[in-house]
Write a structure and sequence with these properties.
Length: about 80
């Protein structure tokens, strides 16, 4: 899943912050529980679990990121 995010285009990379949690650590397990995730891999956008147990197509992930970015930056 992390690889799917790493290969996103530069314009998307510039508007996101990526946090990876290792499920072998207490912090990783805690974050997994906070998101109420049930399985890996999982992707959360703006603290909302969006993809679970699947790696989305790049276009789908980009669209979801852009949609949230536009919604957050309406002025």
């Amino acid at each position: 899943m992390a690889e799917a995010v790493k290969v996103l285009p530069d314009d998307i990379q510039q508007i996101i912050t990526v946090d990876n949690w290792d499920m072998r650590t207490r912090q990783g397990v805690q974050r997994f529980r906070e998101l109420k995730a049930k399985s890996l891999p999982s992707i959360a956008l703006d603290g909302e679990l969006v993809y679970e147990s699947l790696i989305p197509m790049q276009e789908e992930l980009i669209a979801a990121i852009r949609q949230r970015y536009v919604a957050k930056n309406k002025d």
